[in-house]
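Subgroup meeting minutes
Present: P.N., E.W., G.H.
Scribe: E.W.

1. P.N. recapped why we're keeping a running log of single-chain structure predictions: easier to compare across weeks, and new members can see raw inputs and outputs side by side.
2. G.H. added today's entry (578 aa).
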Amino acid sequence: MRWQSYLAISILMAVILGLCSSPLQVSAALPETGDRLTVSGVIADAQGKGVKEVEIELLADGKQVTPQGREGRIETGSKGGFVGRYRLPQGILPKTELKIRALRPSWQTQESEVLKIVETGTDTAGNRLFQAEADLTLKRTITPAFWIAATVLLAVYVLIAAELMHRTLASFLGAALILFISYTAGTFDKNFFILSFEDSMRAIDLNVVFLLMGMMIIVGVLKKTGLFQWLAYKSYALARGNIFILSFILQIITAVTSAFLDNVTTMLLMIPVTIEIAVTLKVNPLALLIPEVFASNVGGAATLIGDPPNILIGSYAKLTFAQFVINLALVCTVCLALTSLWYLWWYKKGYLAAEVKDVGRTIEYLKEEYKITNKKLTVMGLGVLAFVIFLFIVHGVLHMEPSVAALIGAMALLAISRVDIVEMLEHEVEWPTLVFFIALFMVIAGAEETGLIQIIAEWVKDLSGGNLTAAIVLVLWVSAIASAFIDNIPFTATMLPIIAFLNQTIPGAESGVLWWSLALGACLGGNGTMIGASANVVTVGLVEKAGYHISFLGYMKACWWPMMITVAISMVYLLIAY
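Output recorded in log:
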């Protein structure tokens, strides 16, 4: 029996050693009687924003205390708050020195000061009740996850800007890589964990996705009516063969249409008609199309739904259609008027060389070629579009997301028009664009979770010195120059949390002026080069397909200085108005 005695002694020693080295237990090993302690608080970042999923540990004289329930773990909620309940041996409170410790990957581990314990009474069993509050501010730390997220974000930008692969593939590859690393290397070492699948799903802004989808369907139905081609014919008829007037009218129509649809869709509709008119006049189509695409980006900047960057900003900042119009329509109108005159001068030689012969016959030809083919569908489409725009205007009062207005309009139009929804979904909804947005949200979320976005935001704040005027100028011009050389959609998505941070930390920024700085910078700056905005890329691609080539530098030569002029006008406007 000697070996059994040795075994029993060994087990007893192991249990004793385990109890000594483990956290102070508050399980059934302790008597039901004892002191009851409730600890609550908020764990926030340097800007006062709650940090979720922070593990909270209670230390009693330096030893960890296990909480009741929740499998012995306490974590902060979505807004950084937590509540922990503990059962301690009777009589040790309030003499025991209590602290809390906060732990989370990509953040520095923090310990609080000694907690102030307040006795609140006794429960029905006679146990004394205590409460303590503990708020902590966490600081970021640089981990391998930070460098991986930064590298992936930069790689996605490079792949998109250099057109080494389709932007949808580039963004989705980046998103997939972030999740793959998180659930492989991040499983074994939390310093490599970037983004959870659940957080990546929450990062997808479905308001943006469904708003774009709804508007694509509405435009797809209207395309069937010949409405947009008819507008081009009416433009030529109104100009009576004067190409200067024609160019000006086409720019105005493009800008106004872009304000209520989106600039990419508008250009897809205008390009084939403009090429037909240019060929008839024996003018290089680029002399009409470059002013048009410039006008589409300027007009799109004026409203919530006109340009993808504005859709992103409006959804993130909860800004209404009316707020965009009130704050941006005036300056965009001024910019449009000046740049229209600029292009009339810039392409003067080409316009003067146009062969304007037999204007009446040309008008008759265009009238026959580009006419409304379905008047009933046109009336229904325009009626639904007007209703949707009305909902956009009042959605702030109704507390309705813009996507709801777009989707109800799209579905109502499909129902009353009897247009095949399968055809619309297959041919009119630009799924690659929607998937691009979905993946991009995930990549940006990875950069935000690991602290990259916050570091950039703090750098911008330090550079501006906390001065609102400097911040307006900095955000506007950085956005404009950056958007000229990289697609303004991913740039805007990256800047959203940065502007939100600056709004909280710079006095006077609560007016929202930095949102307008970002919108004007991203939308107008995208005019600077052929890759700055999606509408530019679409226009150049379709024109080249028709046999008319323009180089990167040639496009930049035609658009750079008008872009700089519009941004300068916007800067003056923002500084005066705010």
